[in-house]
């Protein structure tokens, strides 16, 4: 195991693209907004490219069909209201955990490691989705993009999670699929674990020293296999 992920005492997880594939329901909400406003629907892969920076940014991108677009204020407010209403009502119609997620979380909890979710999704929607997927009880803490004044890639959400869980940031993993996840981990001093199956291009991120994770896994049970020997060794040393 790489030294950067030694002596882990807690783990934080991104939500969309790491714990679950939520793109079908996010795309459905985005296109419900566009239909209501007389706009043409967007392909699902386009909406996928807009995800990761929080709901406010997603609505701007949905309305303008432009990653860097900014909708007019009144249109954005209308679109935001429509999006939240539709998405909240259909938040888990097609969203499912990735294979191995539930088993991996159970395995990690068996090591006595407290778990958190740190997402740029709003806290209310994150809690609602995790409950709908039957995953909420695995986590001691859920930090949303609106829980604090800053969200990923700022370090504040991870520093808050580490403090709340009572562990040093350097002993808390950040597990995610995106550039924001890895940059937040770097800024907070947390070891970064990338997942190869999410929305981000982990191969490309791994080629850039600024976004190279300390470890890449293809499923959450792999994290357990990396941590189990260390946790057993730590227990024997006590």
TrEMBL record:
Pfam families: Hydrolase. Mg(2+) binds at residues 14, 16, 177. GO terms for cellular component: cytosol. Pathway: Organic acid metabolism; glycolate biosynthesis; glycolate from 2-phosphoglycolate: step 1/1. It comes from the Bacteria. SUPFAM superfamilies: HAD-like. It catalyses: 2-phosphoglycolate + H2O = glycolate + phosphate. Keywords: Carbohydrate metabolism, Hydrolase, Magnesium, Metal-binding. Its EC number is 3.1.3.18. One of its GO terms (biological process) is carbohydrate metabolic process. One of its GO terms (molecular function) is phosphoglycolate phosphatase activity. Its cofactor is Mg(2+). The active site is at 14 (nucleophile). Specifically catalyzes the dephosphorylation of 2-phosphoglycolate. Is involved in the dissimilation of the intracellular 2-phosphoglycolate formed during the DNA repair of 3'-phosphoglycolate ends, a major class of DNA lesions induced by oxidative stress. Belongs to the HAD-like hydrolase superfamily. CbbY/CbbZ/Gph/YieH family. This is Phosphoglycolate phosphatase.
